[in-house]
């Protein structure tokens, strides 16, 4: 059965994305050459430019893919629980644990803010995961589990703390770092709880 042009284009795009992701995670944005990505993917440099216009275009697409996958990983961890408080804890823990993934660490946390610029990176983060965090916090406030307060600054504070902790974990050689960070996370989150009535 003959492969259609659309299937061939999709396969080329997937191969470029997979090789780009592997190289961006291993070598960082500045260590990657688009022509070498194309060659390793078994396609021409022209095909790479056709699909992504530039190395920055490929990187932007890889960042979006990693962001989406991370958001799905966090949501799946949260969805394993029925209790809204446990959903928040599980989602935050899944995000922290994801920092050990080279793609998340190098692509998403280290290179994306500088390569794409803070505003674009934040917009992508907002779309993929910060929005879910805000929704979880809104639900907890509405249920009276977290003291009534504006959710947007709380979301940004927690998101910033999580990003910083994930970066620290990714660079830490300590075998106790994740457990210690999860303990600190629980203390911080418990400080948000509304006083018992």
TrEMBL record:
PROSITE patterns: HTH_TETR_2
Listed InterPro entries: Homeodomain-like_sf, HTH-type_TetR-like_transc_reg, HTH_TetR, Rv0078-like_C, Tet_transcr_reg_TetR-rel_C_sf
Keyword Transcription regulation: yes
Keywords, comma-separated and alphabetical: DNA-binding, Transcription, Transcription regulation
DNA-binding stretch(es), residue numbering of this chain: 33-52
Domain HTH tetR-type: from-to ranges: 10-70
Top-rank lineage group of the source organism: Bacteria
Protein's name according to its UniProt entry: TetR/AcrR family transcriptional regulator
High-level lineage: Bacteria, Bacillati, Actinomycetota, Actinomycetes, Kitasatosporales
């Amino acid at each position: 059965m003959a492969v259609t042009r659309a299937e061939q284009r999709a396969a080329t795009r997937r191969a470029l994305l997979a090789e780009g992701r592997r190289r961006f995670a291993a070598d960082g944005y500045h260590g990657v050459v688009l022509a070498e990505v194309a060659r390793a993917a078994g396609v021409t440099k022209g095909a790479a430019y056709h699909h992504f216009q530039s190395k920055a275009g490929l990187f932007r697409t890889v960042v979006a893919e990693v962001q989406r996958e991370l958001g799905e990983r966090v949501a799946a961890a949260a969805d394993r629980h029925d209790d809204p408080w446990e959903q928040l804890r599980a989602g935050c823990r899944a995000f922290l644990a994801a920092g050990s993934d080279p793609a998340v660490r190098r692509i998403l946390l280290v290179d994306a803010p500088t390569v794409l610029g803070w505003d674009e990176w934040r917009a992508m983060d907002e779309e993929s995961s910060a929005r879910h965090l805000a929704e979880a916090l809104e639900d907890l406030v509405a249920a009276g589990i977290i003291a009534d307060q504006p959710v947007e600054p709380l979301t940004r504070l927690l998101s910033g703390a999580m990003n910083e902790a994930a970066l620290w974990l990714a660079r830490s050689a300590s075998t106790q770092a994740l457990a210690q960070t999860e303990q600190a996370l629980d203390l911080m989150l418990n400080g948000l709880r509304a006083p018992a009535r």
